[in-house]
Amino acid sequence: MKILAVDTSSKNCSVAIVEVDENKNYNVLACENSDDEKTHSQKLMPMIDKIFKETNLELKNMDILACCVGPGSFTGIRIGIATMKAFADVTNIKTVSVTSLESLSYNIEEDGIIIPIIDCKNNNVYSAIFSRENNTYKQIGENISDSIDNAINLYKEFSQNKKIIFVGDGSILYKDLLTSKLSNQLIFSDNNVQSSISLAKCAYNKYLEGLYGDSNNLSPLYLRKSQAERAKDEKA
Questions:
Q1: Hey, which bits of 74-174 come out as E strands?
Q2: Second CATH level (architecture) for the domain 108-188
Q3: pLDDT over 90 at 196, yes or no
Q4: 46 CB-contact burial (10 Å; exposed 0-12 / middle 13-18 / buried 19+)
Q5: Residue 234 confidence (pLDDT)
């Protein structure tokens, strides 16, 4: 099974073609990354074209279209979703919607409590809590969009007396605060960049669970209002 995975929700624009065999072995056929957030709209299609040429494959050869739907950059999310929706409409290939928090959790390949944290400025974060056991990832509770202090209170509630693995740019930014507030065994990952490879792995597991659909399956997950909307509310 071949998966085209696209993540434009963060500073890193990432695309990959990942093949999964019957034994659930993942083979990365091609992968491209660009860390210039302002040029995602210009670079996405050339990056996709490049990995198709590298692998001698075409869009019609894909079995799954995996797309990151956020939370993250409002503009970036729309770019990725619009592209994958168009691909799905043209080909009728099944789509799988993956959140940036789910994808980040798949950066971690050891059992424990996994907490992805994405910085969204002004001491606010996007986050979630996952457990990983025997190669199976399970989200605990809802997605979090809150201040880092309130998020830490939730971490305490869900993860007492368990090893906690933090991942994501927010875990780097707030490492000292997390260390001072939590008494658990804390591990901070070095693999903090959102990756289309992790996205593909998560998408494959969701596909096996029947969590797929057509282009309408892809819709943005923002969790909070845009900066323009917040400014409008404050003015009102």
A1: 94-98, 112-119, 124-133, 136-147, 164-167
A2: 2-Layer Sandwich (3.30)
A3: yes
A4: exposed
A5: 47
